[in-house]
Amino acid sequence: MSDFDYNDNEAPYSDFEFSDQSFDDTEDNNDEIGYSSTDDGSAFDDDDIYGPRADTRKIYETDHKALTKTDLFDICQSLIDDAHSILSLPKDTIATLLQTFNWRRDNLIERYMEDPDKVLSTSGVIDKPTTFQFETAESGYMCYICCEDTPNMELLRLGCNHRACRSCFKYYTEQKINEEGTSKDLRCPNENCTFVIPDSAIKVLVTIDVYNKYKDLSLKSFVRSRNSIKWCPYPDCDSAVECLVRDYELKTTVPSVTCANGHSFCFGCSLEDHQPCLCALVKLWLQKSQDDSETANWIKANTKECSKCHAPIEKNGGCNHMKCKTCRHEFCWICMGDWIKHGQAYYNCSRYDDKDSKESREAISDSRHSLERYLHYFNRYANHEQSARLDKKTYIMVVKKSKVLQESIGMSWIQAQFLSQSFKILHQARKTLKWSYAFAYYLEKSHVTTIFEDNQSDLEFAVEQLSELFEMDASEIADRKVQLLDKCSYVGKRRIKLIEEAAKGLSAEEWKYVVDF
Known about the structure:
Blueprint: H1 46-50, E1 65-67, H2 69-87, H3 91-100, H4 105-114, H5 116-123, E2 132-136, E3 154-158, E4 163-165, H6 166-178, H7 199-205, H8 208-224, E5 229-231, E6 240-242, E7 256-258, E8 264-266, H9 279-302, E9 304-305, E10 312-313, E11 321-323, E12 330-332, H10 355-389, H11 391-408, H12 413-416, H13 418-441, H14 447-469, H15 474-477, H16 481-507
């Protein structure tokens, strides 16, 4: 077992997971010797991680590497081994030093060479071969923590020479791990002592479950220190992804990545894969939809806007003389013109075509048009989002139909998998369409936007046709298998075409937006 090994008990997965591979039924230190803000957080250079870049990579694809927990522990162990071979310090000590330096190996080595004593003292370690040992208490010894003086009780002595009974050390470390959720700075319990309890001591002190939690916390600390590594955001997924996308690249690319468990997500914002919409636009869209969507339809149907401040106003009486409670502006409900210019025509507006009232109506018309435009895109976005939520029901139906095929006509399990694969294509296409409407909302009208909307419309139509095919009876599936597969192939190609053309526009910076971000 390696020095940084882990007992990996796989977490159970739900019976229904939107995996893009299959549809199976079944803490930062910024002190003077710690993290360097100029470090990009990558443990390796590009070739070390991915090998030579392939010319066959599609323009909408992002170089990345899926990492399991074992992979992450191997990376940590490799960093420990490398630093150990240069500094010749115990591996326990190296592990503690690397955590202090946020796993920046080169930064640690450089600073240690400059002032080893300062690095060691600040990190809470000492340069000695043995960092802890167990011993038997001499006659008359009393533990300073629990005040027990049991003869021949087992003690733990740390490298700082402070000692206490083993049970007290066990309770102390388990409390730190379980209650405080910390893996860094597990220091000697003696007051004012900064010595860090080494990993090897924790391993023999606590139970295997607590030790595994400690290693998980250490791993989370490691991942937080790497700008190039992120956990998969899917529930109960313990996989991570390494990707070298930089912040400035997020204005021209959507870094879609896939973890070892087949979950696709955006590396830039850790939300679901939202190609072709940029991360910044996704953030704007989600904020706007949360603020506007629930009330927009009612406001549109039941209110008018103040012609001065555009606050929504509901008419609750027969009089056309309106006073805005927000800005106190007085206007006519019929023509939206300034009320002062109405004279005595309080109940009968005869000035509809007057220039002043026309300008007021045009201003409100622009605002209404903006709302109608938003609702056009939001309703289509929401429709596909709702369809995605209903996918679980559809998928269960697909699984049942697959079983019917196997039982009724003797189709093998492998042969029946075309249904699950077809459904995967439908699910991916719906997700792409959903985010394509958020993207289109922020685009300025141009010839490239028109082409994008044509591709979008084509995919929309094909998706609805494919969705209808899933409604067929199980008895029809075998006879219409070719039709289903042909439509799946078309939907898949049109989806790729949509995100590919969008990615080309992003890369060439051809898209123009109606907002700044």
